Amino acid sequence: MQAAQETQVLIIGGGIGGLMLAAICRKLKIACLVLERSKKVTPAGAGISLAPNALRVLEQIGLYDDIVRHGQRLDKILIHRNQTKWRTLDFTCVNSWFGYPVYSIERHYFHHRLYEAADGDNTVLLDSAVVDLIDDPADRHVKVELANGSHVKAQVVVGADGIRSVTRRVLARQAGIDGKNTIRFTGRVHMSGYTAPIPNLGPKDLGVGNWLFYNDSILTTWPCIDNRQWFIGVKAADTQGQEKIDRSVWAHTTPDTVNEAYGTRFHPFAESGQFKDIVDRSERVITSNVFEEADFPTMSKGRVALLGDAAHSMTSFFGQGACQAIEDATELANSLQSYFSTVGTKEQDYGLKSSRGDSSNLVQVLSDYSARRGERAKALVSFSRNYAKVHTGTLGYGIGPLVRKLIYAYLPEWGWMWGLRWLYGYQPIVDNLSSVPGENLVYA
After folding, report:
1. pLDDT tens-place string over residues 218-246
2. In contact, 288 and 248? CB cutoff 8 Å
3. Which of 101, 127, 195, 308 could be cross-linked to 17 through a Cys-Cys bond (beta carbons 3.0 to 4.6 Å apart)?
4. pLDDT less than 70: residues of the chain
5. 3-state secondary structure the chain
6. Structure confidence at residue 180 (pLDDT)
């Protein structure tokens, strides 16, 4: 890498949010680079849930048809308390309410498609670990220093580097907050995996998810293509020792790790009735401690902005982490387009024309993005936290189990849809790209 490489937008982190922003910038002819610390493209996780609030913009940039072909639409959810079936929740009405269904797809495949949409190796610089960034208002560029001794300059830097964000630590320090990430451990551990097709399942099982509430844990399985299963188990973590608390992803997780916690538990799709049948079909498994937002210093500082988990980590109980990163990327791309449209956006013009622009205006554009997205992020983190309490039956005053049963066993489908209007009904798109069918739905 050249020591003085320059670009308009420099994205730190090649995960879902970073690649989504890069893909949109490519569509808008905004020059960008992505710095990824890994030496090769290795997306973490097993599956991913894509809901209506993310699918509209994914259709706009040309990825929706591929999601339909390689993902699995969620049609219904079987809900059990231990081995007792509470109900079947119809989820086909999501499409009629919000214009799109919910899809589950293999995370590795979706990440690869975003990588291609961002122009792959031409945009993403691997083995590029960031150690510091310098945003001097007197300098035309923000300077990002890398572990290999080189640096990259950009008019705008975007931190999309996840829950342990280097970018966020720098912004937190500049805001007078402890330089460590402002996140807290929830006391829970997730065990997840993605399986090969389950041989005893047939056409009637396609699109069927499962929520299982056990006495000391919960388990979710989402349907994926060809009757593959993406599973997520949640239980209290072993909090003995700071090292166990601080780790995000556990090393050396195997199916035996998952089976030790869930193998003998009931699952309606298991041929023997025990979840071990499904775990043993896993193609990959992962275990991670669960963290959530403890403070919101800001989503921008000067000419540096944040998106995704770098800005607002949240529990994964409603599967909105990736969707919120996609929302962030869309909103930020619109903000950047509004700024660069006044100073020239074409990649071939960058460095040849004066594209300095008004840095104070750029700071204000990013500040507006921070204010707009920050409010929704706070609402999502709060929703995710409260939903986790409902889902695990741990609401205060001893009412948790009762409230959980009332909602999961008796709340009608229209009640679920009405409650999701504010989440699924908000569907941002890229302003300067061709539109997609339907109006931009925003529910109060």
Report:
1. 999 999 999 999 999 887 766 555 445 45
2. yes
3. 308
4. 1-4, 43-44, 175-187, 237-251, 290-297, 314-318, 344-359, 436-444
5. CCCEEEEEEEEECCCHHHHHHHHHHHHHCCCEEEECCCCCCCCCCCEEEECHHHHHHHHHCCCHHHHHHHCEECCEEEEEECCEEEEEEECCHHHHHHCCCCEEEEHHHHHHHHHHHCCHHHCEECCCCEEEEECCCCCCCEEEEECCCCEEEEEEEEECCCCCCHHHHHHHHHCCCCCCCCEEEEEEEEEEEEECCCCCCCHHHCCEEEEEECCCEEEEEEEEHHHEEEEEEEEECCCCCHHHHHCCECCCCCHHHHHHHHCCCECCCCCCCECHHHHCCEEEEEEEEEEEECCCCCCEECCEEECCHHHHCCCCCCCCHHHHHHHHHHHHHHHHHHHHCCCCCCHHHCCCCCCCCCHHHHHHHHHHHHHHHHHHHHHHHHHHHHHHHHHHCCCCCCCHHHHHHHHHHHCCHHHHHHHCHHHHCCCCCCCCCCCCCCCCCCCC
6. 53
What's the whole-model pTM score?
Answer: 0.89
Find out whether 70 and 396 touch, Cβ atoms under 8 Å.
no
Tokens for 10, please give them.
């420099």
- pLDDT tens, position by position, 266-314: 999 999 999 999 999 999 988 877 666 566 568 899 999 999 988 887 6
pLDDT of residue 353: 37
Separation of alpha carbons 151 and 173, rounded Å: 21
